[in-house]
Structure formats: C-alpha cells, structure tokens
Amino acid sequence: MTLQPLQLKSILFLVVAVAIGPVVASWAFLRESSPSPSTAVLWAIVVVAAITGVVLGGSLLRRSLTIGKDEITLKTTFYARTVKLVNVTGVEKIRPGSAEDVIGMRVNGLGLPGFRSGWFKARSGGRVFADLTAGDYLLISAGSQPKLAVGVRDAAATLAFLQQHLASGQGCATPPTSTARTD
Prior knowledge:
Elements: H1 8-32, H2 39-61, E1 64-67, E2 71-76, E3 79-84, E4 88-94, E5 103-112, E6 115-122, E7 127-132, E8 137-142, E9 145-150, H3 155-168, E10 179-181
Parallel strand pairs: 7-9
Antiparallel strand pairs: 1-2, 1-10, 2-3, 4-8, 5-6, 6-7, 8-9
Helix pairs in contact: 1-2
C-alpha cells in the first residue's frame, strides 16, 4: 500500500516557511538596525533555516505504511505507530469533513496546508495517529477507539484486504505489498 503523495502546496509552504521566510524576515530586521547588520548573524540564520529544512524534508521522506503478517506499522514524519492485526476491530473509508470524520485538533505532530501527520484528538474520544494528505482516508480501529488514520493511493484495495483479514479472524498470510514508501 502506497501512501498518498504530498501535495505541491504542502511542499511550497514548507519551503517558504522554513527556508525563505526566516531569511527574508531577518534580513529586513537587520537592515533596519543600526549599526550595520552583521553578515555573520545573517549567515547563522541561513544555516539554521537550512538545517531545519533538511530535517523536516528528510522526515517527510520516511513516510511509509507496512502491513505485515501480524501488524500494521505507519511511519510518518517524526513518529511511528504499530497496531497488531489481531486487535483491529474495524476498517472504514472516511471522507474528510463528513459526519464520520474523526480527526480533530492536532495534539503532537506536523500540520501543513494539505498535509497532517502525527497525533490528533479523535472526535469520538482518545487519540488517533494519522498521515493524511488529500481525499478519503482509511480509519483503522482497535477495540472501540480509532487508532490509525491513513491516506493510501488505492484505498479500495487496502480496505478490501484489511476487511478480508477481519472476516477471516486470523493473521495475514500474504499482504498485497509488504512495504511501501511514498514517492
């Protein structure tokens, strides 16, 4: 199962917010200060912005969904969550903004325009771990609580596979794709 790719607006926001924004703001502030701005200070700001951009960009490349014989592992930006397949009690396809949408406020994670990653309050109570870009997502519940919300490219195939597992009541013998990374 391949996760949905990042949208262009998410990437552009990251570039502007992390790389360009601090540099331009610092340059404008230093230009107005008297005495003349220190080039070393400006370069320090550029270096810190570049390191932050590399760390955030690298974390976006580690996004993956792995469905193994007995567990589902979702890795996104700075976090990962594993749910045992024997604990999964439900899988459903959710349209964002619908009455079934459980994603609430971000508790801990990354939120960019068109991209949400990390821990979110579930409207039904508790917390849900999510990696969402645009469009429908799969909500995987364990017990009575939602545990994972993941946007995959082929939601129908992933949903059918996981529902087949739930119906069989045993571990997954051969998942369609053992490991998939985003492009």
